[in-house]
């Protein structure tokens, strides 16, 4: 699995990540959502450089222009609910893409141990397409692996791009061990080293779903 950390290069994206982490800025949920959406747009632009293009003739009012257009079918997928703003940013650029959604959550038991419950999946066929999965926080990686496995039940994608705003090193290692090596690329904006005994990323940013949409019951 190839890992591309866009945060290693200085760009305006790093300001968006800083605002996502800042507990004062986080009080503005609309800005929090918009910053995740901005990251999705940046990731979409960078992923677009890896796709295949065909030359197409476009008629202008004054003549014919040759334009390079990506015609590969794309499926955008996200894990509800936290992934929705990041998903929207990707969709802003890949506006012709099909969309799939996964509902998954942590079900805690004793000693802070949990298992991932996958309750719902609404997916189009991924066979022969480019699959892009958005999840703002890659902690243990277990929910992303389950989501991937569920999505590819509907066909084998040509390539899968996984998009995360912040990833833990443990999560990256888990994906590397459980996903196809050559056909998956992980895109991140930042990598954090620490994962607590409750599987929270430190320094991270907190609960992305709560910050975007309000504290859940």
Give the number of domains: 1
* DSSP E strands, number: 12
- Most strands sheet: 8 strands, mixed
Give the mean pLDDT: 93
What series of H and E elements makes up the topology?
EHHEEEHEEEEHEHEEEH
Give the low-confidence spans: none
Beta-strand percent range: 25-35%
Residues in helix, %: 25-40%
CA radius of gyration is 18 Å
Structural class: alpha/beta
Number of helices: 6
What's the architecture in CATH terms?
A: 3-Layer(aba) Sandwich
Distance from first to last alpha carbon: 36 Å
Give the C-level CATH assignment.
Alpha Beta
CATH topology: Rossmann fold
In quaternary terms, these chains amount to single chain
The global form is globular
Task: Please render the helix and strand layout as text.
Layout: E1 2-5, H1 13-21, H2 29-48, E2 53-59, E3 64-70, E4 74-80, H3 84-93, E5 98-108, E6 114-122, E7 130-134, E8 137-138, H4 142-151, E9 159-168, H5 169-178, E10 184-192, E11 194-195, E12 201-202, H6 208-213
Parallel strand pairs: 1-10, 4-5, 4-7, 7-9, 8-9, 9-10
Antiparallel strand pairs: 2-3, 5-6, 11-12
Helix pairs in contact: 1-2, 2-3
Question: Outline of this structure?
Answer:
The protein is an alpha/beta fold and 217 residues long. It has a single domain, classed as Rossmann fold (3-Layer(aba) Sandwich), CATH 3.40.50. It is built from 6 helices and 12 strands.
How would you explain this protein's 3D organization?
The strands form three sheets. Strands 1, 4, 5, 6, 7, 8, 9 and 10 form an eight-stranded mixed beta sheet that branches. A two-stranded antiparallel ribbon has the order 2-3. It is built from six helices and twelve strands. The model has no long low-confidence stretch (mean pLDDT 93). The termini are far apart. By secondary structure, it is α/β, with parallel strands linked by helices. It has helices spanning 13-21, 29-48, 84-93, 142-151, 169-178, 208-213; strands at residues 2-5, 53-59, 64-70, 74-80, 98-108, 114-122, 130-134, 137-138, 159-168, 184-192, 194-195, 201-202. Helix 5 (169-178) links the parallel strand 9 (159-168) and strand 10 (184-192). It is globular and about 65 Å long. Helix 1 (13-21) packs antiparallel against helix 2 (29-48) and helix 2 crosses helix 3. It has one domain (2-51, 70-212): Rossmann fold (3-Layer(aba) Sandwich).
């Amino acid at each position: 699995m190839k890992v591309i950390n866009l945060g290693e290069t200085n760009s305006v994206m790093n300001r968006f990540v800083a605002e996502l982490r800042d507990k004062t800025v986080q009080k503005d949920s609309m800005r929090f959502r918009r910053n995740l959406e901005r990251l999705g747009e940046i990731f979409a632009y960078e992923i677009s450089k890896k796709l295949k293009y065909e030359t197409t003739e476009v008629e202008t009012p004054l003549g014919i222009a040759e334009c390079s257009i990506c015609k590969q079918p794309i499926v955008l997928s996200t894990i509800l609910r936290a992934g929705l703003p990041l998903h929207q940013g990707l969709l802003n650029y890949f506006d012709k893409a099909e969309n799939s959604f996964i509902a998954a959550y942590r079900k805690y038991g004793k000693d802070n141990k949990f298992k991932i419950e996958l309750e719902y999946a609404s997916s189009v066929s991924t066979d022969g397409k480019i699959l892009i999965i958005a999840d703002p926080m890659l902690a243990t990686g277990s929910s992303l692996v389950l989501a991937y496995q569920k999505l590819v039940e509907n066909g084998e994608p040509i390539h899968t791009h996984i998009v995360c705003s912040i990833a833990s090193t443990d999560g990256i290692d888990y994906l590397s061990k459980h996903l196809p090596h050559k056909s998956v690329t992980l895109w991140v904006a930042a990598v954090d080293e620490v994962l607590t005994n409750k599987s929270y990323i430190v320094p991270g940013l907190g609960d992305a779903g709560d910050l975007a949409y309000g504290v859940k019951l």
